[in-house]
Amino acid sequence: MKREIWEELVDRVVDDECTVEEKRALYEAAERNPEIREAIDAALRIRKLLRSSAGASVPPEFSERLRLAIERSDFWVEREVERPAVRPASTTAAEPAETTKGRRWGGRRVFWATTGAAVAFAAVALLAPGVVDGTKAFLARYDKIEETGGTGGTGDLENGVGEKKDASATKNSPKVAPRLPIRTPQNASTAPETPPTSYSDGFYTRRVLDSANARRLVAEFLQVCRDNNVKYAKIDGDFEFLLTKTTADARDKIWRWLNENACEIAPRAENNLAETWNNGADNIENVRVSFFVSNNEPVGPTE
Amino acid sequence: MNDERLIDATLAGDKNAFGELARKYQDRVYNLALPIVGNADDALDVVQETFLQALAHLESFRRSSRFYTWLYRIAYNCAVGALRKRGRTTSVDRIVEEVGDRFESPVESPDAKSKRDDDVQALREALAKLPEEYRAPIVLREIEGANYERIAEALEIPIGTVRSRLHRARNALREALERRRNDF
Q1: Residue among B2, B166, B130, B167 at smallest CA distance from B68
Q2: Which residue from A minimizes the CA distance to B52?
Q3: Measured between alpha carbons, how far is A8 from B115 in angstroms, rounded to an integer?
Q4: d(CA B73, CA B154)
Q5: Could you report the per-residue pLDDT of A87-120, keeping only the tens digit for each?
């Protein structure tokens, strides 16, 4: 048997990728040729050594890390068909919002409680073409949401606005709104404090506003902030803000204002917001509030 | 519950179902990633990234292959991606550190143990030095026990290429073992 033939055969035999005849032929050849025997032995020895060092298990604490990572995946956001009911304007933030997903919030509460993370996002309505590619389809989708009274959007900050959803999916799922970008805060123009350098994960908007209404709403919102000593930073453009510090009392007022005026918040953001706020932390930080307008005013960079 | 049902449940929004899939395969993915990336921290990152990627793309899983075949293709890509990000060198010392003396047998004589230690060390060094295209097939074959077809599918290369790469990988590993013996 020629070397190149038995060399190839050795691999296939040890890998059990051969016929019975081939295996028999190789073993017969090996009886006559010590080189072949050695090659077979070496291949099997390598396997044994490699497998002997491959019984590692992930550390126990990793399982929990993985579980949390899975739970926080965007994947679930898109599956949250039912949205938590928006809190009536008369309720306070201290009262848990009525929700159809209370069961699923349980794990998150534990998470927040254990990590002490108090991060949340809020959102108000929609869209500057500069931010969202200015596509008609995109605008139309918001229009559709407006018309149908859809209950909001969902998105992924990390994926940015440019990622448009399939039109049919939008048709079938009017609650799904486009994604919005993460933006690094610029120097705070109106904020007494330095804005944080990172955000939590999620916030989404739904309502289309015309420019005049957006500006009116922004002015009103900022007045509410100032009245309640809520620190805020302008993130980008004139319509996006980060609440850098609030108190429990201010939190209630802001929450109420948002419910009355701003928007319904997409599931993921709503989870974060509602949980964080309902947990009653005194100081709520990094709540992002964005106002989107449907005219041509650029709100910020497309990312 | 079998994989199919867990996938269906996941797609229906059941987080626990995917958690179960993750628990079921996390060690296998870890053992696949570890020899490729060479250290536990990076391997754990690969495991996490693998499952998040799998979850994100679960709808695109066509079920023409087994779930794990699909999963380890993702794992492999994540591992190679991690390796590239970090640079191509795998630290032999770290592999040794991570996998330790798992092969140790209580009935081995000191001499036999010493020889086996040498072999394992040589093998790990050789594995770490293998070019990526050879390392992946040998890891999939010898650690995962994947057959040629599954390796070809996972690495998206023809079966003939799988064979030739396995052959070269084995040659390199065997030569490493022989060199080590000759040194002593």
Answers
A1: B2
A2: A70
A3: 29
A4: 5
A5: 333 333 333 333 333 333 334 443 444 344 333 3
Flag the least confident range among A179-188, A248-257, A286-295, B151-160: A179-188
Contact call for residues A69 and B52 (beta carbons, < 8 A): yes
**CB B58 within 8 Å of CB A75:** yes
| Count of other CB atoms within 10 angstroms of residue A135 | 14
* Contact A186/B at CB under 8 A: no
Are residues A249 and A72 in contact, defined by beta-carbon separation less than 8 angstroms?
A: no
Contact B170 A42 (CB under 8 A): yes
List the CATH code of the domain at B3-183.
1.10.1740.10
Q: Which residues pair with A232 in a beta bridge?
A: A243
Residue in the structure block whose two tokens are 């304007």: A89
In Å, the largest CA–CA distance within chain B is 60
Contact between chains at A49 and B102 (C-beta distance less than 8 A): no
Of B177, B99, B164, whose CA–CA distance to B137 is shortest? B164
- Residues 40 to 59 of A: which have CB under 8 A from any B CB? 42-43, 45-47, 49-59
Its ipTM equals: 0.73
Report the alpha-carbon distance of residue B131 to residue B23 in Å, rounded.
31
Indicate the residue type of B174.
Answer: R
Among all residues of chain A, which has the CA nearest to that of B104?
A52
Other CB atoms within 10 A of residue A73 CB: 18
Q: What is the distance between the alpha carbons of residues B50 and B73, in angstroms, rounded to a whole number?
A: 9
Calpha distance B61→B10 (Å, rounded)? 12
Q: Which of A44, A46, A71, A73 to mutate to test the interface with B (most CBs of B within 10 A)?
A: A46
pLDDT digits (tens, 9 = 90+) for A146-188: 333 332 322 222 232 323 333 333 333 333 333 333 232 233 2
Q: What span, in angstroms and rounded, lies between the C-alpha atoms of A269 and A120?
A: 7
* DSSP single-letter state for residue B89: P
Let me know: does A72 contact A62? Beta carbons within 8 Å: no
Q: Say how far apart CA A6 and CA A115 lie, in whole Å.
A: 61
Radius of gyration in angstroms for the set of CA atoms belonging to chain B, rounded to a whole number: 18
Rounded Cα distance, A236 and A161, in Å: 15
Q: Element (H or E) spanning A88, and its range? A: none
The 3-class secondary structure across A124-169, one letter per residue, is CCECCCCCCCCCHHHHHHHHHHHHHCCCCCCCCCCCCCCCCCCHHH
CA B180 to CA B71: how far, in whole Å? Answer: 36
Q: Which residues of B touch A49 (CB under 8 A)?
A: 103, 116, 119-120, 123
CB B143 within 8 A of CB A54: yes
Interatomic CA distance for residues B34 and A106, integer angstroms: 34
For chain A, the farthest-separated pair of C-alpha atoms sits apart, in whole angstroms, at: 95
